[in-house]
Amino acid sequence: MDINIGNDKPFFLIAGPCQIESQEHALHMASAIKHIAEFVGIDFIYKSSFDKANRTSLHGKRGAGLERGMEIFDFLKKEIPGLKIITDVHTAEQCSIVAPHVDAIQIPAFLCRQTDLLLEAGKQGIWVNVKKGQFLAPWDMANVAYKIASTGNEMIMLCERGTSFGYNTLVNDMRGLHEMKKTGYPVVIDATHSCQQPGGQGTSSGGNREHIPVIAQAAVAVGVAGVFMEVHNDPDNAYSDGPNNLHLNDLENLLIKLKAIDEIVKCRPKI
What we know:
Layout: E1 12-16, H1 23-40, E2 44-47, H2 66-79, E3 85-88, H3 92-98, E4 104-107, H4 115-123, E5 127-131, H5 141-149, E6 156-160, E7 163-164, E8 170-171, H6 175-181, E9 187-190, E10 196-197, E11 206-207, H7 212-222, E12 226-232, E13 246-247, H8 251-265
Helix pairs in contact: 1-2, 1-8, 3-4, 4-5, 7-8
């Protein structure tokens, strides 16, 4: 993947709808976000899930499924030259199936200590973005990274997505970003799931998207390798995680602010 990823490098963007809603919607979102990222001057990886296996309710929408999801990813790469894609996997068996269709694999937070899954993800020889479990201390991620690195794959990203703080509530401790950076691996802030209220709506998760820019700007001010944001053109009607999805219309202005902060923090003022 021809993106220069590092905590001291210009930040890159991981963004897209929570799950694949349709091929047409995926094409629209990937094209629109890529256009915005290129306009602002930020490297971009498209994110969307083929299966959301950890829904709050049995009745929650889960996505396109494994086979159809891979077909859609292949379609997107054909239609949008240069598009980079990341998606999450939930079982070790999925890793080798998914890897040929994407540029990076993501490990969900609830699964971040599953050894077989981490080892198989590492063996694919592509970037692995691991979400920090809501139940873990930031320094615990060193053990997670070591499992992947034991396969010989050092292309590892560690992603902060909030810490459980009572019922249906997450908080973000910005010191955790600093602690995870001590591992030597690139650190990513998940600014949207950090604003989530897990199970907060009874049969689905709630959230407060007005806090997304707050979390994103604070994290970039600390200094991170990347920013993860779920983005949707109609968040209130998104198939999942709508309350904590950033509206597509708000993406450009936020990225401009984040880039300005990033350049100051990493001492790269405009000339």
